[in-house]
Amino acid sequence: MAKPKPPVEKNQTIELTFEDLTHEGNGVGKIEGYPLFVPYGLPGEKAQVKVIKVKKNFGFGKLLEITEASEDRVEAPCDVYLQCGGCQLQHMSYDRQLAMKQKQVKDVMKKIGHLEHVPVHETIGMDDPWRYRNKIQIPVGQKEDGELMTGFYQKRSHNIIDMDTCLIQDEMNDRMVETVRRIATRLGISAYDEDTHRGTLRHIMVRTGQTTKDIMVVLVTRTQNLPEKDKLIDEIKDAFPNVKSVIQNINSGRTNVILGKETHVLWGDEYIYDMIGDVKFMISPKSFYQVNPTQTQKLYDQALQYADIRGGETVIDAYCGIGTISLFLAQKAEKVYGVEVVPDAVTDAKKNARLNHMDNAEFYVGQAEELMPWWRNQGLRPDVIVVDPPRKGCDEALLKAMIDMEPERIVYVSCNPSTLARDLRILEDGGYQTKEVQPVDMFPQTSHVECVSQLIRRKGN
Ligand code: SAH
After folding, report:
1. What pLDDT does 3 receive?
2. Which residue of 62, 63, 378, 414 is surrounded by the most CB atoms within 10 Å?
3. Is residue 84 within 8 Å of residue 167, measured between CB atoms?
């Protein structure tokens, strides 16, 4: 039977009551059973909504006016919240954000993993869910009077929003961007223009070590030549005594990718350092390092607890990046094997092991789904396996090798609850029991959720 025509039309204004939230944080309201998704709507609210897109089974709307507000609604503190799109949840109280993330994980555990009986704990949040990011990469533009400006792109466009502060960034990052912008304007350095592919400064990137207070500044330029380079460096150093590293990265391509291949140290060190717990890490301009160190510590502490290392264990850390989780585990385990596909990250992981005088961690370059079956065939039988895959989750070949290796415990760290639920189902069918799932809020004010979960091998398997 043909579906009835949607009960709304494009550009129509309607009154809508929101009943639910999508995983992205959009409000969901229904007209005669037909769902409309509306950014910034909260469950329980009534609002005037303009219909902007009508599809066969669902549509999208724009919030015009709230007629009955939810108790969970708060005023977004950021001036450019609605234009920017970097954050999605600033209009929602933090408690509600945490509850929404827990519910999202519960939903997919049930729908995708058929694991409704597995406890999903309350999301571990931050005491102060602002100014948590240790890394900023911000585009540079130029006003008509020649003054440089910095800001993120407006939603679905490449127009730079002129902004002074980003409230989820470490204050130091904000101040550094502002300082570089001011000095560079005075020295007559031009901003890169995407349309004409001319101009010099494309992006300013700043990374800070939360515990060490080290700062790294990376100036991404289109050209090899950076005019007034020495003056620029001197003034940055004068303004920030904690600067340890000033770097130029050259990106001459017509591309959205931020960093180019070529990197020069203009002044200071190639690396800065940071600590997570008792482990020290080197951070280079390109290395992947968790952006919220406060929550990373909580995530890793939980992973370590789930790994239940008592001494003497052999552990595999698949998708190990620069060895962060591996070295955390190597503090207690007898031996840790890490595998990671990016060669530079493995080089960093090895350096990090040496930096911490740990000689019980070995790192290998490769695809986890290829190396794991090979290790299995070589007879490696770890006590614990930790995985921390990218959004698409684990490859089936990897899950199969894990099951064959029969570790007592598996710790699964995930940045995507849907693929987590899918993979937990496969591990369950292979003889493992998911004991619990712990969501951790690594990205307050945004809709991203991180989880860590523990699986135990069923007896008799
Ligand atoms: N555990 C690390 C990194 C997690 S991010 C940390 O907490 O910092 C996921 C990592 O998996 C990235 O470093 C990415 O380069 C790597 N990766 C992606 N696909 C992979 C694959 N097929 N095999 C091995 N590593 C992979």
Report:
1. 65
2. 414
3. no
